[in-house]
Amino acid sequence: MAQTSTAQTTDNSTTSSSANATVNSASGSGVSGPVRLQQSPASRSTTGRSGADDALSDRDRDDLMAHDAAGLMPNRAAGAGVDEFETYVRKLGYPGVQRFGQELITGKAGFDSADSSGLVPADYTIGPGDELQISLWGSVDADLRVQVDRSGRISIPRVGTIMVAGVRYADLSDVISRRVGQVFRNYQLSVSLGQIRSVRIYVTGHVKRPGVYTVGGLSSVVNGLMRSGGPASAGSLRDIELRRGKEMVSRYDLYDLLLKGDRSADRVVQNGDVIHVGPVGTQVALVGSVNRPAIFEMKPGEKVTDIVAMAGGFTAVADRSRLAIERLDDRAKTRITQLSLPEDSAQVPGSGDVLRAFSAVDATQPVARQNKRIRIEGEVTKPGEYVLPPGVTTRMAIGLAGGLTPNAYVYGTEFTRESVRVSQQQNYDRALRDMETEFARASATQRAISADEAATFEQRSTATSRLIEKLRQVRPTGRIVLQMEPDTAVLPDLPIEDGDRVYVPARPTTVSVFGSVFNSGAFLLEPGKTLGDFMNLAGGPTRGSDPGATFVLRPNGSVLSQLQRSSFFGLVGSVNKLKAEPGDTVFVPEMMNKTTWTQDLKEWTQIMYQFGIGAAALKTLQN
Predict the structure, then answer these.
(1) In whole angstroms, what separates CA 400 from the centre of its chain?
(2) How far is residue 317 from each of residues 180, 230, 367, 388, 601, measured CA to CA in Å?
(3) pTM of the prediction?
């Protein structure tokens, strides 16, 4: 009884003609052995075309050349055409949003990929033009390459013709084995496909290049669709029909492939099949904090929750409690409304609606609900960074840090806040711009009547430019002045904000004097000494100083100036008579020429301390 073997691989090799065979009989030579069936050398395939060449037949290449000559080939670099709705969404402020699935349509790999697959499906139907590779061994020995002729038959030496057209690939081995078994016994048989026939299909509807195409026999609906350039901007990705005569073979939804990887409806095309693409359906845009913002095509009955699923769901930081919707039908009345989730997730958007998902971290939460990340440094038991719950104050934060050490100098505590620093920087930049404008205006009105005066103006202008450049390099610190007495032992009980920094220094033992004095430096603090005593230790003001503008920076960030203690009738007191506190810094500015164009300009040193710059920055500017 005959035994058969069915091969499950495809050989995309060369074409051969019908088998014209000769028979080498064992009995004819007087030696026993298997019957040898051979094809004549002239009948073997000698074309030498590769499988890739086979996938694109001569007729198919002629079709593509004709399309190219007519200017119908797509510009792959430019991408697909943009419809009106996509243009509308981009004008709303979402330039990167495009139609979902656009990459599949415009991608070079999808258009140029081969039509044939490496594995022949079991339900592939044999037809004229297919090449079969048949191997026989046992009582008969043969290695044949035969082609199905136009009548649907193949010819095997000493066996005859066999009708194979219309036979499924899975049943092919059994059909051939039954016919060979009528002539031989005790053999084994293997059948595989060589070259696959080409088929002509029609692609119609809303595609870029409708027409007739020649594709490989293993091509599917998607392969044929991509050969035509894919659906046009007005074509549907979800309503693709495969028609065979008057029969609707399948209806294909490309979203099944894009979202689920499901190709079960992607049928293999046959000769004369029609692939028809319907018009695009309801289109809705989903933008914002979703994993795949895009314009989606909806089927009847699909809801908001289905659109969110198509977009890959919300991002990790999205606000999942709401969506904003801009309805095209309501633009003349209510432009934007809000959908609460999940209550409104079953709503059905209309064509042209735009949905937007929001980020939960972009918007600043109310202070009462914010956790606070702060740094506590200096003279505390456990300095470091802390994340504190809402409602925590400075005293509570110091307690969480283990409290103050015995050497803590509470009066000198530096309490800085990020929001204050930003505000100070804005005001400081504005003051510098005003200063630069005043300098430029005053300089433009100067008239020199001699070369010496012109040189003087030039020197002043250069010095002013250097000063402004130095001022631009200084940055406010965001320090908040704490109104405390020098001998206080506890901090004011202030609410904490995110980004605050509390630095409690050790108790200093010096008082600093610098500026226009003979000997700038830090001097050891002695009980009962006044600021004037330390001014004397520094040698006192120089001849070019302006003692009337002297000011003192206190350790808590406050400023006392000589100008504050002046009145219309004269001095009501002097900063020199004030008691010196640990960490005080005395600054004596230089005298500015009151008779020149700088007469109405405020001293830059006053601008510095008004924005909380601090003594270190003033020393840098002085140098």
Answers:
(1) 40
(2) 69, 36, 20, 22, 51
(3) 0.59
